[in-house]
DNA sequence: GCGCCGAATGGCACTCAGTGCTGCCGAATG
DNA sequence: CATTCGGCAGCACTGAGTGCCATTCGGCGC
């Protein structure tokens, strides 16, 4: 792109610098990052549908064919790091110990996914705003989330193998974990990345863990109950009241909200 | 297209017959059904990607433009009745009574969706085999399922409004209901539509209802309380006990199970 | 019976996503 | 220096999806 064949000595030097950068950055293709930056710039200022792949590659200064070497589709450029994150997550689940609570392990895996978002708050918020408006991106995000959910469910199915209704439990818990994670994550994204996302997700996941009863409620130990109270609660309810109403009373009496 | 202006009398008769069919079938465009039939025939014998929209309209004997008048995309023809079913489901939720258990209502809505599958077992099984192999159809199905889940969650958010963690509970329960429904549904589809799908889904949904403690367990209302007791119940629970354990105590104390 | 109107349809042309192929260039080999 | 190999640009092509317009058909008023 820049002036070439002007000074061979200088070119040799430039090559050395480039190589040094390569070693330093370690297998990071600059073309990929240029495409991501160009795509987001155009998507944000002009809209997703109003931007063609040709516009992106023109702004990034690369060939059109290169775009599809790095991303499977026009939507894929919006979720550039999910492939690696999904691999990390499955590896994390595969490395789990046998005596660990499976639900807790899956919750920790979800926390791993959360970290990918919190590492780049600005980027995550921009992407959230895009996916909220563009139906095509929402659909693509669904397929991404679905792969996480299937990874969770697959792990749980293995851990629940032999148990009655093992696959049912696995599927339901995986879906609940994903839903809780997304609920907290989206609250954080709607707040422009302000606030403690980790705490919000912990809180949401604790609700799931309590609902399925397969855990010691993680945060209860640490955040817990600083006054040391582990006392009893008395609830009085009319027998004819609908059960779900009673449960609501119980929950508020127990201080879970 | 067919021979015209040959015998006006005969043409008049043909018109009458056509009109009679229209009145009989009542607002059912035959073009739509012809497109669905042609699409499935080609998808099954040749594969989804190997079939173009031109192939479908050629076999159905209609213009290419008409395909996209009836279906939003090539994938859409595989899920022809979901739009109506989704409308029915949201209407069913909107018509719910205020004093009914919200979780139970959502489970009933899921049973409504199941009915759409069980009404045409052969069709549902064919579609299942297609979506299992074709990634594009899986993605499309995800977006369809997502709309049901959002309908469920929206209803629950309304019912849980004001409660602590209302949206979290709504999202998680909606996801759990959908996951349980799909788990049972897919078992039935894998078995080629043999067996009792209703019973399987009932069983799966009961698991969800128990996990979230928001139900009177199916038959409690009708089984009633013939002794006329409408007294009070006192429950004592340790504050640190997992919620599901507490709920179990409540349920047994209230005599519902 | 006649003409008009609106809805449904078919046909055409166009944009753009995604893919296969070819040639090119630079870098690592001998 | 010659060769090979991997990444990239450019080109051409298929096919999905859309906008536009002409046509047709059933219905309706005159």
UniProtKB/TrEMBL annotation, chains A, B:
Record carries keyword 4Fe-4S: no
Portion annotated as DNA-binding: 52-71
Biased composition (Basic and acidic residues): 9-25
Keyword DNA-binding: yes
Record-linked PROSITE patterns: HTH_TETR_1, HTH_TETR_2
One Pfam family hit: TetR_N
InterPro entries in UniProt: DNA-bd_HTH_TetR-type_CS (IPR023772), Homeodomain-like_sf (IPR009057), HTH-type_TetR-like_transc_reg (IPR050109), HTH_TetR (IPR001647), MftR_C (IPR041347)
GO MF annotation terms: DNA-binding transcription factor activity; transcription cis-regulatory region binding
UniProt KW keywords: DNA-binding
Name of the molecule in the record: TetR family transcriptional regulator
């Amino acid at each position: 792109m820049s002036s070439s064949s002007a000074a061979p000595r200088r070119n040799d030097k430039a090559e050395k610098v480039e190589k040094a950068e390569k070693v330093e950055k370690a297998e990071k293709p600059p073309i990929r990052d240029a495409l991501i930056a160009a795509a987001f710039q155009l998507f944000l200022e002009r809209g997703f549908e109003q931007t063609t792949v040709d516009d992106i590659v023109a702004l990034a200064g690369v060939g059109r064919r290169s775009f599809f070497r790095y991303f499977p589709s026009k939507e894929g450029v919006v979720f550039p790091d999910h492939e690696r994150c999904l691999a990390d997550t499955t590896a994390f689940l595969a490395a789990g110990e046998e005596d660990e609570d499976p639900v807790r392990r899956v919750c920790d895996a979800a926390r791993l996914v959360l970290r990918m978002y919190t590492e780049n708050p600005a980027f995550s918020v921009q992407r959230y705003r895009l996916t909220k408006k563009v139906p095509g991106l929402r659909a693509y995000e669904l397929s991404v989330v679905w792969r996480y959910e299937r990874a969770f469910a697959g792990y749980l199915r293995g851990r629940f193998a032999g148990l009655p209704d093992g696959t049912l439990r696995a599927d339901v818990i995986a879906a609940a974990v994903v839903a809780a994670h997304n609920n907290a994550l989206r609250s954080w994204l709607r707040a422009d990345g302000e606030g403690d996302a980790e705490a919000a997700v912990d809180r949401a996941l604790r609700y799931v863990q309590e609902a399925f009863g397969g855990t010691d409620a993680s945060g209860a130990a640490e955040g817990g109950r600083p006054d040391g109270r582990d006392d009893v609660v008395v609830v009085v309810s009319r027998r004819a009241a609908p059960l779900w109403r009673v449960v609501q009373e119980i929950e508020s009496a127990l201080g879970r909200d």
